[in-house]
């Protein structure tokens, strides 16, 4: 069986998505917007184990079903309606704008809270 995710630095593997969400040695550090609009962006996790410390990039779509609310098509980043949070990877504060990135930010909060539980 193929692993769901493998750390390219130390070789640790996670067989399923829930293994990632339940691993206390992973820390969600941010959300990287795909400004081209070709994807929903990426979550960045730090692998906090001695001898590793790498950052692992995982596509948002692999976690999308954790949040099923309405999605918006338009990216508001750079417009007067946007508070600019998506320009700061580590900013995981919820956004209430009708933007295609707002639901991802809420998803990031769900993931962060699960990792810390």
How is this structure best described in words?
This protein has one domain (5-116). Helices cover 17% and strands 19% of the residues. It has helices at residues 17-21, 102-116, and strands spanning 5-6, 13-14, 26-32, 42-47, 55-59. The strands form two sheets. It has a three-stranded antiparallel beta sheet, with helices on one face. The chain has a two-stranded antiparallel ribbon with strand order 1-2. It is elongated. The mean pLDDT is 89.
Terminal residue distance: 28 Å
String of helices and strands: EEHEEEH
Quaternary class: single chain
Q: Report the uncertain regions.
A: none
Structural class: alpha+beta
Q: How is the biggest beta sheet arranged?
A: 3 strands, antiparallel
What is the residue-mean pLDDT, rounded to a whole number? 89
Instruction: Choose one word for the global shape.
Output: elongated
Count every helix, treating DSSP H or I runs of 4 or more residues as helices: 2
The spatial strand order of the largest sheet comes to 3-4-5
How many runs of DSSP E, i.e. beta strands? 5
Supply the number of structural domains: 1
| Helical content class | 10-25%
Estimate what percentage of residues fall within beta strands: 15-25%
C-alpha Rg (nearest Å): 15 Å
């Amino acid at each position: 069986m193929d692993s769901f995710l493998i750390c390219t630095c130390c070789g640790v593997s996670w067989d399923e998505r829930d293994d990632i969400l339940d691993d206390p040695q992973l820390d969600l550090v941010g959300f990287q917007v795909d400004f081209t609009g070709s994807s929903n962006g990426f979550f960045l996790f730090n692998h906090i184990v001695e001898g590793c410390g790498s950052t692992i990039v995982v596509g948002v779509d692999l976690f999308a079903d954790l949040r099923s609310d309405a999605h918006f098509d338009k990216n508001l980043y750079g417009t007067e309606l946007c508070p600019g949070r998506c320009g700061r990877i580590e900013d995981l504060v919820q956004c209430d704008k009708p933007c295609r990135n707002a639901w991802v930010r809420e998803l990031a909060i769900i993931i962060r809270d699960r990792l810390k539980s």
